[in-house]
Write a structure and sequence with these properties.
The complex is a heterodimer of chains A (about 350) and B (about 240). Chain A is of the alpha+beta class and about 350 residues long. In chain A, about 30% of the residues lie in helices and about 15% in strands. In chain B, strand 3 and strand 4 form a beta hairpin. Classes of the chains: A alpha+beta (about 350), B alpha+beta (about 240).
Chain lengths: ~350, ~240
Amino acid sequence: MEAQKYVWEGAIPLQIHLHESQVTALPPPPPALILAPRIGYMPLLASLIKPYFSSTLPPGVDTIWFDYNGIPLKWYVPTGVLFDLLCPEPERPWNITVHFRGYPGNVLIPCEGEDSVKWSFINSLKEAAYIMNGNCKNVMNMSQSDQSELWNSVMNGNLEAYQRVSSKLKLATFDDEYRTLCSQKSQQSFGETDLTAQVNTGRVPIRLYVLSIREDFDDLDEMPRIDCWEKISYINRPVEIHQEDTCFTLHDALKTLLPELFSDESLTNVKLGGVDFQDAVRNPNEDVSSDKVVEDHGKNAHKHPEAGHISSGGEIKLIRIQGIEPKLEIPFSWVANNLINPDYFLHICVYVKVAQ
Amino acid sequence: MFSAINSRWNCSGLQQVMDVLHWDGTLSAQDFRIGAFAFAQEWESLNLGFPPWSWVLCPKHPCLASPEEGYLSLENICISRPNEEDIHQISQIDNGEEQTGCSGDENFVDNATLVQSSHHELHYCDFHIVYSSIFRVPVLYFRAYCSDGRPLLLDEIEKELPVCSSKELSESKWTFITQEEHPYLKRPWYKLHPCGTNEWMKLLFLSHTANPKFEAVPELYLLSWFSVAGQVFGLRIPSKISN
C-alpha cells in the first residue's frame, strides 16, 4: 500500500539544543540536526545525538530526555504524534532541548534506553491485538526471533521486513473499497468484487489526543503556546466499524469519540485541507495515490460538512493524523488501514476551542 | 464470536449475568462500579485491620461525554515486614524484660518507635483499582514510598513482597508489572498488567464451582479478582465464590 510507505518514510527535521545546565564548556556546542522518523520514538535517537555533545557533558551517568518549550516529551508517544500535537503551526526544523541529567521522575516514566521503548511498543501491540481480536495470544506467542525482527524493522524503518512479520500476527484489517479496487494480487475480476458486506464488526484501536484551548484565536499562528500536558486530554477508546456500513467516514468515527463536539450532523470551522504530506521527505512530483482516493470518495460522500455551527461542547479547530489534515469524508476504514502506526494504533490529534 | 458475547454482556447494566461457560471473563464499566461498592463493603466487614477503600470520582472533561468514572483507593498501607531483630525486641517487651532504648512511660509500648530505632525504614504503598475500558477488567495500580515520601523503585518494592510473589512475577505469564502513567493522576505508577485477567477470572470462577450454570455476578467479581491480585502483596482475602 502506497500510503503506508509514505507514512513510514515520513520524518521530522529536529534541531536539538543541549540544555544550558549541561553545558560545561563555553562556547556552548552548536545544535544537532537530526531527521527523526515519524513512526519512531525519541529515546531511540540517543546514539545519533550523543556524539554531538559527549565532549561537553559533565561526568556521570546519562539518562536522556527531551523537552519542547519546557514541556517534557513523553518518550512512549511516537515522534510524529508529539510534533503534530505540540506544534500546531509546524515548526521546521523543530527546536527541541535535550537533557542527559536531572530526569524528571515525578512526571515522566523512567526510560532505560532501547529496551524500555521496545517493551512499551510490545505492550501497545498487545493492547491493539486485544482490541481487534479479543485476546493478545498472537502477540504473546510470538517467537523471540519474530519479536526481534519486528522491533528491528520499526527501529530501522524497514516496512517490508515489518510487513513480513506482522502479517503472521493475523491482526484484522478493515474492508475498504480502495483496497478491493486496487488489489493487483486479487484473483477476483472486477465484476466479482461485489461489495456485499460481510456481517462483521471491526474495532479500530485509537489514541486520541484532545488539546483544549480556552482563548480565542483564528489562525494557528495566533494559538497560545501549550505549556503543560494538563491541557491535553488523552482518550484511549476504540471505534467500531460495521462492515455493512460502507459509508462510515472519518467524520462518523470522530463523532462517536467526541459526541459533544458534533451536533446536528454539521461541523464547526474545521480547516478542511486536502491530503497534504507536510513533513515527508519525498519527490513533490510523485503521484500521491491517496489524493486520488480522496477525490473519488469526495464525490460519493453523502454528508457534506457545513461550517459555522458551534456546539455546546466546543469548536474543533484542527484534526491531524500523521501530519495530515484529512478530509472528513474519507472512509474511516481507509484511514484505519493506512494511517496507523506500527503498533496498530491510529493516533489522532484534535484541537478544540472551549467556551470560556 | 467475541463481539457477540461482548454485546450480550454489555446490554443492560444491573443484573447482567451469564453462565460461566459462555462468559469471557470480563465485566462492563457499570458492573465494575457495582462490584467496587460491593467489594468495599465486604472488605470492611472482613475486619482485616486495614482502613476502608474509598471511591474517588474523576473530573469530567468539558468536551467528552463519558459517564462519570471513578476508582477505588486504599492508601498509606505499610508493606514493610518487620525483620527478626524487631520481632525479638517486641517479644522482649511483652515478657516484661528490659526495654532497649525507649524513654518515657514504662507501661506504654510504642512498637513503631522500636522498629525505627533498629534502622529499618518503613515502606508504604498506595493501591488504586481502576477499570480498563480496553481490557474490560479491573487493574491494580500501585506506588510505594518511604516515610519521607521518596518513591521506591520496583526492585525495592519486590523485596517487601512475599517470597513466592517475586518468583511468580518473574515466571508467570498471567501477572507482570509494568510502569505507566496513571490514567487519572497522570503520574508514573506501577500496575499489574491486565492482559491475562479475563482468562484467569474465568478459570477462577469455573474452578470454584461444580455448577456450570453458576452465574458470574458483578458483586462477586471484584472480591474474587482481588483474592488473586492482592496476593502479590501478601494481602489475603477469601475469594467467596464457593458459597
